[in-house]
Amino acid sequence: MCGIVGYIGTKKASPILINGLKKLEYRGYDSAGISTIEESEISILKDKGRVKNLENLDGINNLKGTVGIAHTRWATHGKPSKSNSHPHMDNSKSFSVVHNGIIENYKELRDFLQNNNYKFYSDTDTEVIPNLIHYYYNKENNFLKSVNLACNDLKGSYAIEVIFKDMPNNMIVAKKDSPLVIGKSDDETFISSDIPALISFTNTFYFLNDTEIAVISKDDISFYDSNLNKISKDLTTVELSSDSADKDGFEDYMLKEIYEQPKAVRETIGTSLNGTNINFEGLSLSKDYLSTINMIYIVACGTAMHAGLGVKSNFETLCNIPVVVDVASEFRYRKPLINEKTLCIYISQSGETADTIAALKLAKSKGAKTIAITNVIESSITREADYYVYTHAGPEIAVASTKAYTSQIVLLNIMALYFAEILNSSSKDRIENIKKEILKLPEKLEKTLEDVSDIKELAKKIYSKKDMFFLGRGIDYTVALEGSLKLKEITYIHSDAYAAGELKHGPIALIEKGVPVISILTNPTLVEKTISNVQEVITRGATSIIITNQSLDCSNFDNIINIPETSALLSPIVSVVPLQLLAYYVSKEKGLDVDKPRNLAKSVTVE
Ligand code: AGP
Predict the structure, then answer these.
(1) Atom of ligand 1 nearest to the CA of 402
(2) Averaged pLDDT of the chain
(3) Closest CA to 104 of 149, 156, 153, 151
(4) Bridge-based pairing state of the strands 170-176 and 158-164
(5) Is the CB of residue 603 below 6 angstroms from any atom belonging to ligand 1?
(6) Is the link from the previous residue into 87 a cis peptide, with omega within 30 of 0?
């Protein structure tokens, strides 16, 4: 939920660190801070608010040090404030630390340290770390050992950067369950929570595994395991253009990413479906293995979970295997009935969602094979899953997920076809027809995005509403859920999604004059039934908005948004686009920060 950046090299650290923080602000933006070392003195500047606020602090230009650490925060323990912002130092001002993660035993450690005469000046869990390091340094008189001993005491998740005033040319970094990458160029080393923040500086990286430690100096990097045994690491080169993480002339990242969907879907298709051949690099499951599978679990959070819902029926009808889609934070605590006959698929755009990764580890511990679907190269989930397959949507910076969702659904549809071919569980004609439909999706997305004036007009009509409802049946219900989440998270308008047939069982009591009800109708076999539900809400005064690819008698509806027709199994990839745009334009009408909505962060790396 937070972003950390570090630099050690020959240039002034502060502008490099600020630049890195700006690229990590989507991970959290409640407060920001920076520490640098010069002449064995640690300077620290930090404050509540965005990185811009930090950049304008008096003294920021006086930070001359070439070694530094920086942090942008999403508050977990302790409200957003100057005292709770990172970096945090020990009482003697010898160590400065930035941290991404949650220390679950921080109260116990705080008590221990207070009993050893340490004082605390913040409400954060993080503040125990520098003081614990100082405590061990007094005993060991060794920077590496004291950091390692402190880390071994921490329960929970951490990615930390530590600088020490008596070793001004060194930095120590360590991680467990939170992301951290080390970028290397000639005589400089960069550290960050993720690759896109560093790609403009370097495309060669080291990756730490959980509980490993790196000691970074201007000249080299040494790696250690949790027992301080020295280990070697290879440099990985990552192909990612730095301009792909910029706005390309769009007002907001979210709008850019909505319009990137044809390209994102095209590139995602291209990595696994070539003509009629399907091939997933790094995923090879035999017919013998797949034939033993009696259950597929698809586990994720938020939009990624909605993508799972959007492909559930496809896997079931094509592979003839029952599919359960579950929320990761529920799955991991419900003692799911899984074993070696269960195949578990985890979807995570960031590849860093704590609940999703924990749910994956649970499944592995019970003997299930695990496949991760992620959009971030070398993200943590790729190091936990048995197999991983990338969507190729490009960096998704806006907190509200759009192109990742459509890319996840298209990739998983291709995976369902892949399994069906191996299992021979569907007719060749059916499989080939769906492949043809998939290959047409990018142009259908382009057509959907050609003219969005009706959606902009609609947003002007409804942006001041306090409640909105989304309806759908079957696969359209899964899109209703996603449309409702998009609206909630970037417009702050209360909305709910219902299976249309459920209205009569209670929710219709909420319908009153002028309440917008947005209905998705793409499944020809269910359209008539859903129209009856729409009539019911119109009778009670609702403003009816229809998203459809069917030719309907529309005389009775207030707003119709037509989209290109697709096979029912693939319709979410197209029908979601008007809902993404509607949420976007409503948010713009309300003058909100679309890319960084309040209380949220792009990657939920804490429970
Ligand atoms: C989606 O718009 C939200 N930002 C959120 O629900 C997100 O999908 C969820 O946190 C899962 O993130 P992940 O895909 O990176 O795991």
Answers:
(1) 2
(2) 93
(3) 156
(4) antiparallel
(5) yes
(6) yes
Q: Which two tokens stand for residue 577?
A: 């686009």
151 is catalytic: no
- Span 457-509, pLDDT tens digits: 999 999 999 999 999 999 999 999 999 999 999 999 999 999 999 998 999 99
Measure the CA–CA gap between 270 and 414, rounded to whole angstroms. 11
Q: Is the pLDDT of residue 165 over 60?
A: yes
Residue to mutate, 346, 350, 606, ligand 1, most ligand atoms under 8 Å from C-beta:
350
Ligand 1 lined by 533 (C-beta under 6 Å): no
Decide: 400 in ligand 1 pocket, CB within 6 A. yes
2 noted as active-site residue: yes
* Calpha distance 566→573 (Å, rounded): 9
pLDDT at 395: 85
For 83-103, the DSSP string reads: TTSSPEE-TTS-EEEEEES-B
Catalytic residue, candidates 2, 151, 319, 344: 2
| Residues 549/553/559/564 CA torsion (nearest 10 deg) | 10
Q: What is the pLDDT of residue 309?
A: 98
The ligand 1 atom nearest the CA atom of 301: 11
- Select from 583, 325, 255 the least CA-distant residue to 478: 325
Q: What amino acid is encoded at 451 in this protein?
A: D
Q: DSSP alpha helices (H): ranges in 175-301? A: 253-259, 261-270, 287-292
- Whether 590 and 491 have beta carbons less than 8 Å apart is answered as yes
- The dihedral region occupied by 361, where left means phi > 0, alpha psi between -120 and 50, and beta the remainder, is alpha
Cβ contact 401:300 at 8 Å: no
Nearest of 229, 197, 202, 198 to residue 213 by alpha carbon: 229
Can you give the pTM of this predicted structure?
Answer: 0.74
- Name beta bridge partners: 428: none
Backbone angles phi, psi at 598, to 5 degrees: -60, 150
Contacts of 473 (CB under 8 A, 6+ apart): 499, 500, 501, 523, 526, 529, 530
Which tokens go with 111? 């008590």
3-state SS assignment for residue 530: helix
